[in-house]
Fold:
Amino acid sequence: MHGHDDAQDDPTSIDAASNVSPKVVAILVDNHREFLKFLERRVGSRAVAEDILQEAFARGLDRLQSLRDDESAVAWFYRILNDTYARPCHESVLVRADCS
Structure:
């Protein structure tokens, strides 16, 4: 996973983050525990679930433009979680517990 400094050095991430609605951020933060439980049930490891969730949050920042005004931020983010979880091991930057 990229370190904190990498995100600060990436102007694309900064631009995306600056366009984030405070309401959307609050909704995602409020649902963090549910997102983590959702992933942990699928992967069987809290540490791996946390890594996937972190990757999904980063991917979500890159996809903010796909969130429509009339769409639930939670449903939108669950789609990103599913996409992130479903990525083949060789494409993911994560070392997943189920990949050997």
Notes: The domain at 4-86 is CATH 1.10.1740.10 (Rna Polymerase Sigma Factor; Chain: A). The longest helix spans residues 46-62.
